[in-house]
Amino acid sequence: MRKIRSFFIGILLIAIMFAMVIGVALLYRANDQLSIKSYFFQIDNYSANRVGALQNLNDMSAIELRNKLIKKYVSEYFTVIPGETNVGNRSVLKNLSDANAYNQWQSSEAQRISKMSAEKMFRRVYVSDADIAAVDLPEGYDYYSVTTAEYILYSVHYTTQTWAESNAMWVEPTYETGNIYIEARFKPGIKENIDIKKYLESGENPSGLFMFEVTNVNSGENE
User: Fold this and answer.
1) Mean of the per-residue pLDDT values for the chain?
2) Domain-wise residue ranges, the chain
3) Exposed e or buried b for every residue in 178-210, given b needs 16+ CB within 10 A?
4) Do the Cβ atoms of 154 and 112 come closer than 8 Å?
5) Core-most of 15, 39, 46, 90, by most CB within 10 Å?
6) Pairwise CA distance, residues 154 & 152, whole Å
7) pLDDT one-digit tens code per residue, 201-221
8) Domain 62-219, CATH 3.10.450.230 — does that match?
């Protein structure tokens, strides 16, 4: 009787060991087939700012393109990145400015940005289409038909959001508004004699492809 019991216990142990081996093998196989899916979460307040579908330049009006370039310019003009080195050398801003306007920025706002950046502050800028107004646009002026783009003064109302300390969830941002006056020459289309493929492959910002040049800037005090 005892031999029969030992025989069945032995069979049971062999079955348990076999099941364990099968389980381990399945576990390793499942691990090999494991895939990771990435999800990007965005704060609800800024859901409208997520990247959309690519736009055809031919489907974009001159005013829409002009406003996008002005927004880009103002963003580059005021944005503060904590710990940024060589603040005075912003290639995008330089490509969108003539020497006079760029020197204006380097000797004024760039100095403040450099100090804020060294203090690990972070600032971003918001401008809506409704905040951009042409101050001295000639009557009947047509961006498409002019042979040479004229110097037009634009008033831009902006809002800044500034964190006094970066990477600190408990720090609340401060909001300020201001006006900046930009004198610029603009004509819809891509600059002549430029290799678009080579330009983009070099890592340059696409905004520099367009016939848009800021020639003078008057930055008002924050309100």
Assistant:
1) 82
2) 62-219
3) bebebbbebbbeeeeeeeeeebeeeeeeebbbb
4) no
5) 90
6) 6
7) 888 888 889 999 999 998 764
8) yes
